Please model this.
Amino acid sequence: MPNTQYAIRLEHITKTFGEVTANHDVSLEVHHGEILSLLGENGSGKTTLMNMIAGIYYPDEGEIYVGDEAVDIRSPRDALRLGIGMIHQHFKLVDVFTALENIALCMEPGEKFDLKKVRSKARAICEKYGFALDLDQKVYEMSVSQKQTLEIVKVLFRGADILILDEPTAVLTPQETDKLFAVMRNMKADGKAVVIITHKLHEVLTISDRVAILRRGEYVGDVATKDANEAMLTEMMVGKKVELDIERPLPVNPTRRLSVHHLSVTGPEGGRVLDDVSFDAYGGEILGIAGISGNGQKELLEAIAGLQRADGGAQIQFFAPGAEDKPTSLIGKTPKDIRDAGIHLSFVPEDRLGMGLVGSMGMTDNMMLKSYGKGHSPIVDRKSPRELAEEVRTELGVVTPGLNTPVSQLSGGNVQKVLVGRELAASPIVLMTAYAVRGLDINTSYTIYHLLNEQKKKGVAVIYVGEDLDVLLELCDRILVLCGGKANGILDARTTTKEEVGLRMTDLQSNKKEVRA
Amino acid sequence: MSSLIAWIMRAIPFGTIIMYGAMGETITEKSGNLNLGVPGIMYLGGFAGFASAYFYENNVANPNPVLSVIIALVCALVASALGGLIYAFLTISLRANQNVTGLALTTFGMGVANFFGVFILDGATYSAAPIANKAFAAKIPVLSQMGVLGQTVFSYGFLAYAAIVLAIVLHWFFNCTRAGLNLRAVGENPATADAAGINVTKYKYLATCIGAAICGVGGLYYVLDYNQGIWATTGQIEALGWLALALVIFTTWKPLNAIWGAYLFGILYWLYQFLPSLLGITVSSAMTDLVQMVPYVVTILVLIAVSMRRKKEDQPPAHLGLAYFREER
Amino acid sequence: MAAQTTHMAEPLVRIARREAAPLSRKIAVRAAAILLALVVDALFIFFVTGLNPINVYVVMWGGTFSTTVRFSWAMRDLATLLCIGIALAPAFKMRFWNIGAEGQVLVGGLATALIMVYFGNSLPAPALFVAMVVGSLAAGALWGFVPAWFKSRWNTNETLFTLMMNYVATSIVACATNIMRGQASSLGTLNKATKAGWLPILFGQRYTINIIVVLALTFAMYAYLKYSKHGYEIAVVGESENTARYAGINVRRVMVRTMIISGAICGLTGFLIVAGKDQTISTTSAGGNGFTAIIVAWLAKFNTFYMALISFLLVFLERGASEIASAYSLNEYAADIITGIILFFILGSEFFINYRLIWRGHHKEVKGE
Model:
């Protein structure tokens, strides 16, 4: 029976998208004055479930109760009326508006349009929670963490009783995360019901009172955080015992393969997004690159791959096996020039379907993305790509209805397998990966780590840009930390600590005027 | 001097037509809908206004000018809003491609107006609604007699002044009202607007239909004022419709710019006729044909300049031309 | 469950995406759309004219199929429309909204006409035809190149740019015809006496060459897009410029090259219109086909064979409507209305291919779909 101690209660919720069942028969409740972690692997349906509370999706089956009243949440408007606020993982902000205008969008229906009042109310919120937010700044000028702050202020402005945060820490440093958690505890003290979606176990254990676990769209159960530990949560999440240790063989005979000197890249707005970065990458080791998202990682890899123009004075040298004393400069070379020069440089970019693959094409056509131009015939040869596609499909276990099924219809893990498979098939000397396991379930993630280690053992120089510091510390041999586009030290991954890396990710910040939430 | 005055007196009414078209389309585009059906809608508005005034005049013993204005205006607004509604239903509810739907609407609107227009013409080359024309084109009394100023500033029909007022109102609406802010949010990022509790579908429908209605007034003004209340099946409205679309770009989606932009387009459009006499030279008729491209070339130059400057505030609404579906993953 | 409140009932109807609808459904939905449109058109005809719609449709059918002459006219119009659609296919596949076909056709036709007039008597026939073809290709290509170059450099909005280029072309054609006609009131048929630059009659049909050229282009463009390296590049650029750059494709070059091809084929259409059909040029030579072809290319999803089908449907309607017009002393604008209504229905029908509706109370059964 409905009970008023619940802030919100879901009963037997099912949601399907075409053939895919995102949530199946999920029942869950959240109490006032509690922080609930919604834990699950990527693709387990956490976000879909919360989107149904926020009115983005409408459930196919099941009921939602707010307080003890059954409700139909048909739109975000209904959700807001019920006091439900959600901070989405992909920010919902209008770029050309100022912070103030974005906040004003969230006024109550029927409220008088008075920007002065909005401003003073927003200021009061900022003061209460200790946010530094320039209300007249345009969103397109903001950093990721400023946008995050604005999102939180928006929700508080509207005054939600039930608050959902979807992976809010993904773009934050450990220090910023602590600050966010303080705000969340504050809200809890105010009697609000807070749900945080995450797949980071240590955060779950730090912040929440209770953990609810989803697996493949189904509700597994919940545990009080005080009774939980990482191994147990993982087992509930994955459904079986998982060996969480990542293998890390010692580098054998490391040889310099890539040398980067004084690399700077100027961004489209004129500022330097990458500032005087130098490092070497060796065959037989994994070089990790850590940093807050948007601190130059993308530009660094793209500059090496020939996709970004390096500023004058930079050097990028490639040392081919057997020709270590005769390096080839990569500066000024396009991706095609690099390929034509016989340089085996593979790159798994962050944006898989927006850069690494063509979503509307099948596996076969994606296999030939980099090799279609071979030969002088004006006609494309689809025979060898088809064979390669078949090979990747069997070796990496890609689940697809057919080689011509558009890859955008595959699950995230399979998309990444197609991409990684193609890049490894080019027998790289240097292999660069950006956020190679983002959005993947644990098993696929471990498959990827394993593949990278295989490459390392083969003598390939692997560059691994990652966001999960725990993984970086376990997988890599050395870690280069980027901060504000600058190299902030190269650490030995076997001896350094997470705090050290986290600190280096932000300690240049003090030079900047920017103030963070 | 007299030819300069004549030039201005041609340019301002001309500008008024496309100003209505551009303002209507601006409202529509602010909601993220790129309606290429403007020429068709202007046809619908112009024809409905003319036909209603024509029937009123020919079927009533003593037609009242004020009533004829009201009838024509209401019919023009309703007909063009209905045109907008077709577009809105197809692109917003059925998520059809906006460019293609707009072009189909242009074909359809031109067809409807000209098809029924032929019935009214009934064999004649043109037909007229003189009473409505007189009412629409009535100059401001007294003020229009005041020499050069009177001629160039006060000698137009009331719709010309209404257009200026409307531009100012729209500026205020977009920048100083909640509905305006919401509308801009819908065109920039409908998912954000939706999450903030704004009814995206409602805003898109209203913006498209009201925008279309205002476009239709441009057609009405063309027929009952600019063209002296004469309906003839020519393709002129179509060219004006595309020019109105050009003007939207020229103004970088800001209604206040439409005021001077529209008159500038008018000046440029009539350049071929007045500049030679102003300079005292004769130009071959072939050259005058060529000069007619100037407004379009100017628009292209503005388009290029805006794209080169990349100023965020001058760009089209970010979601222009795209359909919105909330449950998109 | 008694707590169900009434103020927020489940929405009456919801929509959900449909993954890859089967071919049978696609065909059924489109056929239903056309049928419905014909019913609406019939109602329109009946209410406006009081004529029996069935009879009207019979007359309409006759517009294309009653005599061989009519059929050859229909084929001629089909060739024109389809040729422009083919020209637009690579641009649209690249997600480049080329709305400027009308202008590209016009300048192509103008180049053809100018060469006919000024070299008609001096060049031998084969050289003249080569010059006309090359001239029309070059003029169209230029008209495609300009917006593409700006788009490739500064991402200038091509929809609006190409649209404006139409009117620049119109002005130029107006100016040139004005010069060519001199004191005459209209340009009239070019080279009427010598027939220099007129495409010859083949197999007793005036338009055979037009039809053959377009037929060849239909196959060639299909193969170009599907099997050539260029076609692959176009597809990648259209999907994502970032992916294209990642793959080492020179995006700017592909964009400019593709638009040159698109513009050039439009220019060639202008050649076919002037040399093979009208033997004259005016500002209305393209006759709105440039715009209609956009709809054709879009609906056919860049497949040139579908384009032929859709073009045929539209031409059939057009000719049918003008047949009605002359048979019942209506006017030819009826064609625009009938075409417009059919297009609305076809455009709207796409929704039922890509989405499905879930009505209130039926949501428990969705898994059965």
Observations:
- Residues 352-426 of chain A form one domain.
